[in-house]
Design a protein that fits this description.
The chain is α+β, with helices and mostly antiparallel strands and 294 residues long. It is built from nine helices and 16 strands. The chain folds into two domains: 229 residues, Metallo-beta-lactamase, Chain A (4-Layer Sandwich), CATH 3.60.15.10; 58 residues. The longest helix has 23 residues. The structure holds zinc ion.
Length: 294
Amino acid sequence: MWIYQSGKITERIYFLGNMAFPVYLIKGRRTALIDSGVTICGPFILKDLEKYLGNPRDLNLNLLTHSHFDHCGSSPFLKRNIPGLKIGASEVASQVFFNPRAIELIQSLSSGLEKGMELPPGTDISFKGLEVDTILKDGDLIDLGKGAKIKVISTPGHTRCCLSYYLKKDQALFFSEAGGVPDAEGKIQPQFLSSYSDYLTSLRRMAQYPIKIIGLAHGGILIGKEVEGYLESSIKETRDFKERIKRYLDRHGEMKEVVEVIAREDYQKGKIMQGERPYRINLEAMVKVVAENR
Ligand SMILES: [Zn+2]
């Protein structure tokens, strides 16, 4: 089953936001939200939290998968609006959140989406950096109570700062782009922006876990049949995409040309559910990763 609509998934898992930028609420005695979408998601997430928690102030933790604008964008807003909310992320992410160039990129990629948004006066969704309260690392166990234990898995390769979260009781895995992103036809698009070999190692590590639910980076939630073989397909698509980039580099030489050809072949078919600018930034990074490791 592929779930596109927000709502309750299990006793412990709630899909909040929308299918483009899903975030996941995990409920035990305490509560955690995985990721926060883009900056404009903030007010909507607050409303969803009200719906599912009664009071958004009952949210204790915001666990971030990585430092990209579409996963951490609303965290400063949530922190401003939920007193006591603690942010959890990797050490590397905690540093990125204070890097002026990274902040500038987050602001720049968010600004296009913010245009035309009507917000109530005084609503501040700006991203000017983010303080991480809890540094998370591989193997950490976050016990929310009532059987909701989340294991932290370090899954670098999409970025250096990627963490994935595994909710044991539901065998649910939340891996953001570290697991690849299915396009509109369900074909998994690889996302090895920082390292091809780390990315593949991370996929293989995640494939060791029993998984019944996958909370995607974009596109919603997969349950049951759709989960079977997902990570194995992701590994295959990753290998195939690398080989394709290699072939194109041999044929066209220039990295820039390879980016143009792939963008023309893939993006313009309209199957990829991502803004063109972030799509191109990611594709350039992957072509560079392959070119530098040939
Ligand atoms: Zn990302």
